[in-house]
Structure formats: C-alpha cells, structure tokens
Amino acid sequence: MIGPGVISAARGTSRRWLAVAILATLAMALVTSGPTSRADDALPTAAAVKSLLDGVRDDLDAERPGAARDRFVKAIDALTTLVGAEPPPAAARGLLDRARTLRDDLELQGVEVDAIVLPTLPRAAAKPKGESAAKPGKGPVGTARKGGGGKPTGPGVKGPASTAVSFVEQVAPILVRHCGGCHVAGRRGDFQFTSYDTLMKTGMVQKGAGADSRLVEVIRTGDMPRGGGKVAPDECALLVTWINEGAVFDGADPLVSLQNPGATVAASASPAGAVKLEPGDVSFAFEVAPVLVKQCGGCHDAMQPDGNLSMVSLESLLRGGANGAPIVAGEGAASLLVRKLKGRDIDGQPMPLGKTPLSAEVIATIEKWVDQGGKLDLLTAQTPLATVAAAGRARSLSHADLLVARFEATDEVWRRAIADEEPLVVTRGDLRLVGNVPEARLESLADLAEKAMGEVAETLGTTGGPLVKGGIVLIVFDKPYDYSDFWVNVLGDERPKGLTGKAGVNGDVVYGALVAPAVDSAADRADAMAAIAEEVAAAAFLARGTPDWFAAGAGRAVALKVAAKSTLAKEWRSQAGERLHRMRRPAVVVEGMGGPADDAAVGGAFLAAVSGGGSRLKAILSELDAEAPFEAAFASVFQGSPPAVFEAWLAREGKKRGGNAGR
Description:
663 residues, 5 domains
C-alpha cells in the first residue's frame, strides 16, 4: 500500500519536472524568436483594446462602477502601448475618442478618474515650408473672399490676403447651420452665442490656436452637434483656418445676430437689462410673456421656428425673422407683432395661427407695452420666456399661494426627470425634499436641509421673512446617473463633468438638484450641510433674478461660510485655485459664458473674497428685494460692474500667487 506521504512526494517531483520542462520550452522559444518577436507579441491589438472598452460599457450599464474602473485602467494601459507604436494603427484615434467618452461616463457615476491619464496621438510631421494642406481656390479652406485679387474686404480684416477666411460669408453660416437651433436661436443647456461678440466671450475660440480651441474639439470628438447633421471635415478645416488666422470679424458690427452677421444692429434691438416699472407701466413678465408663451410657443420655438422667428426669449423675439423685426419700440400700432395679432395691414395669416384670436383687451395690453418702449421688468432678455412668465406670477401671488403652486409643480419636474419611479416627499415648512433615496436617509437629509436653510437665511439677513417667496424644492437623486438623467430630460443637456449639484428655476419651481450626499458620520453630515447650503443659497439668488454665474458663486460663497470646516469646503478652496489657473480667460465667468463648474468654483472664490464676510451678499439681496435690477444692485453694493470688480480681484490674486491668477 502506498501511503499519503509517498503520493505527496511523487506529486512534488512531478511539479518540479513540469516546471523545468516549461522553462526549457520558454528558453528555446526566446532563443529562436529573437527580440523582434517579443516586442510584437507584447503589442496589444486594436481588437483587444476594443474588447476591454466594451467590457467597461457593460460594467457601467450593469451598475458595477468599481469593476468598470478596474477594466478601464487595463484598457488605457493597453491603449497607451498601442498608441506608442510606430506608426500607431489607424484605429487608435477612434479608440481614444471612445475612451474619452467612457472616462466621462465613469466620472458621472461618481468614479474617481483624475489619476487615469489618457494617451495622446503624436502630431503629424510638419509639412515642408511652402507646402499647405489646401491651396487657394482648391476647396473651402483656401477659398478666397470676394474682392479684387482675392484680397479680403470689410473692416477689421487682418488675415493673409490670399487665404483669409470670412466670418460673415463662411464661418457664420456653418455655425448657424449646425448650432443655430440649440445655441444661436435657443439657449439649450443654458449656453448661447448669438453674435460674433458673444461667441468670442464664451472662450470656445482661442485666437491663433484652431486645433486647441474648444469649438473645434467638440466637433472633432463628435460631442457636437447632437442629434445628427455632423460638421463635414472640410467645414471643420475651414473653422480651424479661420481661428489660426486670428478669428477675425469682417462685418459691420460684432453685436449683430449670427443669422445676419453683415447687418448693422438697431439700437433698440435688445434691452440692456431689467428696469423698474413706473405706475401705469405694463409688466412684460406678468402681462405679456405669459400670452406669448401660451399662444406662440408651439410655432415659434427654438427648433425650426415658423418664419425663422423664435420666441424663446425676448432677445430672440426682438431679433426678428424672415419678415423683419416684429416690434418697433414706441410704435405699437405700427409693429408687425401687433398688426399680426389684429389681422390688419399684413401679408399672410393673422396670429396666433390655428387658435382663437386674442381678445381686444389682451392685444391692447401688448400694444401699450410696445408704446411704452418694450420694457423688460424681470430677469434678462436672454432668459426663456417661460421662466420670465413664472417670475411674473411669483411676484403677483402671496407667499402661501405660491408655496402651494410651487410644490404642486414639482411633480411634473420629477416625472420629466425619472418617469418610471415614484419619489418620496418630505416637507419642512418652506422647504420640500423630493427624491428616490430610502426614507430614513431622506428624513436625515431633511433635518440637515432645515438647519442649512436657517443658517443661510441668517447669513443673508432674511430671518424676518421667507428666504425665498414660495419656498424651495430640493430634488435629491440616489445615484449619479439619476442626476445625469435629470440634466438630459429636464435641462436638455449633458451633465457637466464633476458636477453633483446645481440650483435652477424651471417654470414655477425654484429648486436645488443634487446627488444625495452621505449622512453616515459626523464628517459626512458636515459635507452634506455644505452641499445643501450651496443649493439653497444659490436658489435664493436665482429666485430674485440674478444671472446663473452670480447665483452659483454666491451659493458657494455662502456655503463656505456656513460649513467652513467641512472637508468639502476645503476641497472647494483647493479646486478654485487649480481651476482658475487652468482657465484661458477667467472673465468668461462674470460675462455669463462660463460653465456651471467654473461658475461655482471661480465665482464662489471671487464672491467669497469680495463679499466682506457675507455683508455685501446680504446687501445685494436687500437691493433685489426692493426690485432693483441686478446690474444696478451689483454696482451699488460693489461699486463697479461685475467685470471691473472681477478683474481687480484677479489682479490681487495674481500678486498673491506671484504671477497671473489665470491664463
């Protein structure tokens, strides 16, 4: 009989012989294959990288963010090796683009991806001097502008005579064709550029750096335009050439609409801002905007409006359409809008088309508003008319009545965000929490929110009355991808990277929407207090008609004061400096052209520094409650315009840092 010890020894001997045989085989393979074979064997294939990226997508769809990150790291390691090949395979660029998209999706699900660095493809070798990608007259990039000998004409043209690209004749039509419905006539995702001037203020174009400009980047990655109708390669090349030549404007006035960039803008084309009404004045917000929203919105919205006349905002209305300007300030009876509503002295059909004609009383009110100069009394000319109309209702209703209307309207916002999930609701006085988190967690968040609302009210000096007339709604999402759905379904845009909360106004609802913060420990609750205070404070300013950038910055500044010692507050302070340093032109924030993350980080640092410990934010809130327009209130409290005060702060920051605060 053979004992267990003999069997064990025999197995050990077999393993040793097997190991020796394997090593011998490997050694022989290495000797016969040589170094070239080893390098080839180590190089991953494009198909292998694609398989890894497919796995990342599967993990994300199955809600396995941890597994998705681990697989993504492996995919990037393999992709880095693939991109480093000489030359890189043709599939490398497509795989890189897909990896960028997955990296964004991972971040949106709360996965930490900052340490994962994507490789970059080496730049193509420079062409010999004198050789160009396209010769003049051989396609769009080299097409000479109109004029003798191909020389550019019009004021301000500085590009080379033989290759200068015309903004008016070539660039603007591309932007209108591919971006017009969402970002020229409309303000989708709260982003709009209506003219050359506003386009340049967005920071999307970096003069002299076509390939590095954000405008070109979002086109080349396929991120824009959305919904089909991609920008053709030759059109993209033309945009790059225009930017490389200095992004020159060759029209008469950089403030005119991109839809007619060669025109001269009328002095009264767009109100400078909201004004305080005199007794007897017609309120645009309360009496005119609601009529336009109800009667005209279906035909004259942002997407392919009838007669090319968009009524998304007062600015788009005043800009006019195919039949010219619909309003002549001070001349109600002569204005096309009034004549269309009356059905007199017009070509074509009276308005509203296919609906019951407006009453003589309503038309008379609109005519009187035009006679009085077409004044704007709330918010801005760029604000969607539905929001302006809601602000008019809010001013006319009592606090109690508005509270009921606002809380009821929240149901519709939730259904648009997540149609197939019934939320839990917790109400605490002027505050309502709506969310899909477990009940106990929502109750804990409600406790923190109630406390945060009280501290924000104390900071802003509103303890004698409601922080916000009609109350505030906090919309709380259990998962990051729920919050991403809110952005897509309610705000009509992709959720910006790294953003977990943003206040807003949607019709009658003044809200703060955020991914539900943890409440398990004392540190968690301190961070949750900071996050909630930011949303509540920002909502308080938005409800009073401030621009988004100011509300976001003020919300962050107040939260930094309310929860100064929280870990989140410390992260915010650190992130502000880093983000400011990375920005090419930080002033886009106060010009209203920064993104939501920049508005909060940079705007928050700015307002925290200049607000005098919160006293100036308290003062500006008081001015706004007295119905002062925002620009006037800001100038009164801060003794200067937002850009001027911001630039002064930026200069001080630069000195403290021993150089420029931003690039």
